[in-house]
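Late entry, evening session. Most of the bench is empty. Finally got around to the prediction I had been postponing all week. Sequence below, unchanged from the version circulated by S.P.
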Amino acid sequence: MKETPDLYGAYPRLDESQLAELNSLGERRTTSTGEVLQQAGESPDEFIVVLDGTVASVQDVADEERVIAVHGPRRFLGEIGMLSGRPLFLTAMAPEPGEVLAVPLDRLTDLTQRDARLADLILRAFLVRRSLQLTLGAGFAIIGSRFSADTRRLREFAARNRLPHQWIDLETDTEAERLLRELGIERDETPVVIWRGEVLRNPDNARLAAAVGLRPAAPVQSVCDLIVVGAGPAGLAAAVYGASEGLATVVLDAVATGGQAGTSSRIENYLGFPAGISGAELADRAEIQANRFGAEITVPATALALEERDGHHVVLLENETRISGRAVLIASGIRYRQLDLPGMNGVTSASVYYAATELEANLCRNDPVVVVGGGNSAGQAAVFLAQHAAEVLLVVRSNELGRDMSRYLADRIERTERIQVLVHSELREVHGERALEEVVVEDLKTGERRAVPAKALFVFIGGIPHVGWLRGRIDLDDRGFVLTGSQIPGERQLLETSRKGVFAVGDVRSGSVKRVAAAVGDGAFAIRMVHEHLHLAHT
């Protein structure tokens, strides 16, 4: 088979010195035609390098195989999930006789801690491969209608967690009905997920996560040092610093790692990344780092309440699991505020979005779209969508674009031909039968209204703190954000809440700066206070 070109660094070759180092740690093996070296759905315990011949990475959905990549000599197999002990999405198979080098993962880990160049090469390749897998839909399959709320839920969960998947739309894909017949599935049983020959009928997010190996097999049984609720930048920073300093750390998130930042196509003002970094890549890197230090991350895990038992803080989860800890870090962030306009209910499932990722961009490719909002999230979405949509209309309530947006971003928007900006304007209505057809925009100065054609609506109008699980247990300000430190009567550490041993960081904290760097700083700084609390509790 012909070897796949090295796209964007996804399939690099090891140099002679790197191969020699790995050779001293592994075992050479001959391979036969058709031999499976890695199986989709299983967690590999070896890092495999091709020495002779080729190895194909293959997707298998509904008994149909698709070759995703072919690896030749000195190239290595694998995916980003194997760095966190998660199952693979692709099967590695030898299409011809050859030879490979198999290195136990624990030995690879020891080597990469000494060899930063090799570590960077592998991590970068795995990150790019995951991006390619997402673009190609090289994972499980979701069959469902674009007008189904459950189809959208599954697709958004998969997208937010960077899970490679293929969506087969019942409304437009001619193969969908044939697949359903072959699988013995009625249309009203959709959406369904197909993975490793198993059919999941309208699974909830937890069941999908378990099926693809996203969740740990068993919940935490013992009392941990620190429970972090929320896996955005603040929560992940706390996980990295807490676990690296010896704290038994558990991280919970209802949706995905990365938080709102994880949906950003490119963060350009984060220190140390002059070319910018996507929110997804930042989250993936942080998650791998936290796992390497021993933090346990569970997604999805929805916190319902904060309790107290036997002198410990207890977080009650949606599945009635209780996790006990000596300290709790609230990093549950915010949820995007939703628009409430005439006509919204009829088009929300198919056309209204609160994130702008590759998933949403692919749905509105070459269509006119509308973005509502004047902050950085709206600006980043507009710039990203302009690369895919026919045109982008950015509707801003304030009188000037740069009032609530970083100057560099406002300047870029003004230079982008496909983006039209309407300042001092608001949406008043949306029109469409099942899917969006147009929006009505009002000029706040003149009162003039006009209809604008649109196929998708992206909403970024601020957020509300995710604190429903804390009400009655933690003091909040008049907008629902968590009060900390000097905002509370009595002696408190800077990030400590009204409850001793419970801290708040990131966007959910009252008075916080809503920036990724500030959230990371919060999460890192909070660990010092957690240590002080645990020290005092033991004296």
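Two things to note before I forget:
The chain has 13 helices and 28 strands.
The first strand starts at residue 27 and ends at 31.
Will write this up properly tomorrow.
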